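User: two proteins, same treatment. go.

Assistant:
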Amino acid sequence: MAAAAVLAASFLGLAAIHAAYDGRTARAQARSPVLTQDRSKAVAMWAEDIDSTGTVPHNVYLVRPLRPDVPPPPGLSRWPKPGEVMMSPELAHAGDGVTTRYGHVAGTISPQGLASPSERLAYANPKTVPDKAEYPWFYISSYGTEGSPFVLAGADGSETQMVMTFAALTLVPALALAVIAVRVGSHGRDRRTHLIHALGGTWRHRAVLNMAEAAVPAASGTLLAGLIWAVGMAHDIRLPFTRYVVAAHDLRTHLPTAAGALAASLGSLLLLAVVLHRVTRKPSKRKTGTRPVVFDTRIPVWRHAGFVGGIVIIAFAQYLTGIIAVAAFVTGTVCLWVFLPSVAAQAAAALGRLIARRGRAAGKAGQLIGGRWTQTRPGVIVRLTTAMIIALGLMAQMQVWNSRHGESVRRAEATQGRIGDTVIAINGSHLTTGLLSRLDAAFPSGTHVILATDQPEDHTMLLQGSCPALSALNLRCTTIPTPDRQAVTNAGDLRMVDEIAAWYSPNVKVQKADLSHLHAGLDRSSLLAVTRERGHLTQVKQTVFQVVPTATVEELGGSLLIGAHNRERNNDWINLFGLAGLLFLLTAGAVSAGGEFARTRTSLAPLAVITGNRQVFGKVTFWHLTIPLLVCTAIAGLVTSVHSVFFVATVKEGTVTWASIAGGITVCAAVSLIIGTIAGRSSVKAAAQWRPTGD
């Protein structure tokens, strides 16, 4: 029942991803403006900007109606007046001075105008509209387009990427739990299968029995998972780690999709109950025997082929590009994780044959019996190692994915640590001398404008500004372009200049200039706001918005940090899905180990009579459980290490932390020792209560 609930919840997760993306796309398209070149047909002026609070980006839509009777965009009760702004609830609570940055907050955006309830969005009507020569306004005729060209700030990747990530990190572990739950404690069921087969029963008869046996717990677990969707239809759900809010409206709209997901989950589990309890007729060496063979005693060859196929796909994925490379790598990874336990168990079975041979030669009963059990029942090892192998792979992939920070991001973080926001970049496509002067006059006291102009003739960067601006950089006020090292003042601190040089040009010259008289080189210039004190970023953003509403304001390297934050947001999804998968795998491991304890304690109990001592229990479980699991752990560690290296080669980013992989292998080895110890002690307790029966 637990496996059915987990599997159904995973299928519902896929349905919820589709519902969220479908609803988000529909609402984003409904609010997208229809541009027009005909001024007479225009109903409003519109522009788009992307700003941030901290390192979290958000969209800012600049609007100004041209007619009094024009309906506002979706989600707004009215148009914001000049100097007003309307925000989403999530943005209004973001802090960082955002509620005063764009004007007076006149209201909130309703859910109908938000891609998701957790979206950060603002509609602002600037107090003054710059001349079109200074700022490119667009004219719009209506709202609502298909295939919107306007992006959502901080979007979490495409639906395909999210589905593949969820499938690899959550759905595969859920399937592993389902497989283990179907097969755990199946010794008596296998005996029934043999009996029905001997009485002439066909696969249809066995299928009916197995499905009927699994139907009630499977249906109960599936309905239990359905309650999650029911709760989601009644209330918005904020997911942990990501802080993303799943809209209840989207889940209500896609109720038929959820019903289909539940039916598919239930059907999949019942199919597993049939497929994993099949029986085959394996001829003996003389090809005359018809003894039925079940899964525990033989691992199908096609599983080995699936494992090899997964390796081949992963190897070739690094030569592909884009979403195709990711899809190929995920497909190969799923094949690898699904079939690696079977390959490792086959190796353990071969080792069991060697253990039994050596135990027989040495006359050691525990080694002989443990080796024979491992040799003849490799399916038990598959069930026990599946959880550990997939958990080890998940941990390694999450570590590599979270390490994907490039050198440029580390540079930006170092710059932030050294100078903070004392140098602020203002990026706009329509710099004019009038704007420079207005900005310089509007900035708070102690903040000044510096113009950084590329000089291609001598490969230098010329910093121009007023004497107070140069003084803020600890530079002398000189009317002749002078190298920065020669213009340094007695203060001698050129950290701010050095950071500007690191991001723009290694060769920097400085010159006093009246910004209102500059006419040449503005197309090759970058605008900087400099100050000696930290903590002026919020004020600078507010001031710049009043003069150039769509200009982007950020610290040096700020766009890289915002990009890194978006990647961390994706990592939050990786952590959410991965931790859910790890929880499923831990449950699978506990169920599998518990079932194996129940089997070994009843099977080993008669050995106390045969051998005359109870020490044999610990020896049998050591050779049957601990040693094979350690072998599988070593194989899984080797494969996971190689797989991580190929992952880095495919995504072209990240590093492999070998200490992390070594730690995971150590944990798996410790679990192997614990499983053998508990099984041995459990058998000792069962032996004291065992009595011969007539079975």
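Protein 2:
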Amino acid sequence: MSALPAPVEQRILLRTATSRDAFMASAVLARAQVTTHTCSTLCELVRALEQGAGAIMLAEEVLSDPAVSTLTDALGSQPPWSDLPVLILARQGADSPIIAAAMDRLANVTVIERPMRVASLISTVRTVLRARNRQYQLRGLLDGLRESDQRKTEFLATLAHELRNPLAPMSTALTLLMRKPHEPAEAHRYYELMGRQIDHMVRLVNDLMEVSRITRGKIELRMEAVALESVIKDAIELSRPLLEGANHTLSVDLCSQPLVVRGDGVRLTQVFSNLLNNAAKYTAPGGAIRIVAREQGHEALIEVWDNGTGIAPDMLNSIFEMFVQVSGTSKAAQGGLGIGLTLVKSLVELHGGSVEARSEGLGCGAVFCVRLPLSRLGPGKPQAPLPAVRGWPASLPGSVLIVDDNRDAADALSDLLRSLGATTRVAYSGAAALRTIADGPVPGLAILDIGMPGMDGCELAEKLRADPALGGLVLVALTGWGQRGDKERIARAGFDHHLLKPLDLAALISMLQGVP
């Protein structure tokens, strides 16, 4: 919601024929709680206009002043949202050519004939002020859109930069591998490099999808009693590579009494890992980071301190907003899109808590304070392992059908699964997959892409599920589509599992072996 206009923007600028007329008009409008400002000349009125006005009220006699051209120019240079109302107090009698000319030059003109009823004057003024307030609302909307567009532009530039960063070493490593044969040990170094960069790109994309789902309210939490000590320790383990890579010193001060909250342990771990990562990125190598957890009233208070780059006072309230980057600190962050704090705020609020940032300014470090309502229940029991997948043996070896219109993706996945002992067949379309299955033998597992032209993965799954002879076939959707609506459609089509691209091999193997 845009801010209300300042009082100066609500006032009526008066230029009447006589000072007595100005006094009377001001008195009448003051009783109606309308602010006025009397100007002795049109040039003075134009200068006052630069500070703001709700409307202008002019006497007909003033329109013969040569300075009216200055007013015409000022009104003609208004911003696109503005159409300042002009009230002209006309003399009684025949139509005036001066007023006719003014109506041609001044767009938003209302003519009031003298003498006038007080009620009519007040009603007219209130009407034009209401119209002016709608213009101010439009101004606020346009300013918000302009600011949002600027943020998105900066965000997209950051996104392009962050995606190019991992692509550069991957491209170099591929060129080196293709230029000449390498010994296995030397080649392995390049493979590890590419693996790290791919993982980094996957995290960037996952963060984008995650913040989109959370801000649109499309995320589901698995709520249970959770011990914060365990959550914080898990978060530290996730952030340890970044902390140790920068040679930071981490100190941990946890409450001696168990702090139990009702929440989703995985999501809360994500919150504190993001805060630790943020502290690590914006703190110079060898810095000090501290995480403190204690009970405060009916809440758990968790603070993440650092002695890093700090935050300017005017940014403290906006750093949690989408697309906001803290000016002057982007070079300090070693990668990332600047949306981690948006995720933190959204997840904390979904748990009924709050988060705030404090800092004495740039160069003075920062502290992020998370408050979560305490639960008096004990921590929940660990979940039981998932049951074994139907129709698939306890070990990976078996027959797998891979269906994907991206030939490189399908062939590479086939090679990978064959290297693990599976027998694979590949089809590059839904129709080709049906022919392959008809030719036999029937596979134990089919990994299907969803976004294929012609017959997509969901249509293919429905056809496979309609065949009684394929009752034991396990269907896995491997796709880049992961929103809630996509998941529901995939489940309706008869898939047993849904994995996102790029393939998480550990998740696939765990899935096939029935291990969570």
